[in-house]
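Sync notes, pocket subgroup
Present: LS, DG
LS reminded everyone that the earlier model was apo-only. Rerun requested with iron/sulfur cluster included. Inputs:
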Amino acid sequence: MNRRLPALLRQFGRDPLGLGPAAQSRHSRELKARTASADRVVQSVCPFCAVGCGQKVYVKDEKVVQIEGDPDSPISRGRLCPKGAASENLVNSPLREKKVKYRPPHATAWQELDLERAMDMIADRVVQTRAQTWEAANAQGQPLNRTLGMAFLGGATLDTEENYLIKKFFTAAGAVSIENQARI
Ligand code: SF4
């Protein structure tokens, strides 16, 4: 269609309401969806919450380029909420943290730690806190076998298997306060 014609003239014929090609700019007409140029599509599940909506992950040159709802999912039937629709950012956002951040007591700034050292520090604190706050029994002598000295708060991008193992581990260690961000 000739884009130099006034919009009213372009409406005549096949677009009388001006809601289709007559109102479309050349820019939007020439846009191509990232899904159209993907090399392959992988079925997955949104990691954000317990609904478990189905996702189609579009991959090009071995990189995730887009994530859409999966119409074949009996749970979500192609839909994603805004969090699920934005989950491509989990992979590609330049704001994604890739290093362990640590702020020592009384410090005003974060510092980076290597993962090995951070894991050792956490393990030391868990063992020490558990030993210092262990409650074997209450005042009546009834067994408690617990600690209120530590708690676990999971993030919503932990998947089901990770949450299962975390719950197992902390319950076995005697922790009572075990929660996940998705339930708050
Ligand atoms: S966060 Fe949204 S898209 Fe993801 S599983 Fe939950 S409801 Fe579905």
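DG: The chain has a mean pLDDT of 90.
LS: The longest helix spans residues 115-133.
Action: DG to write up.
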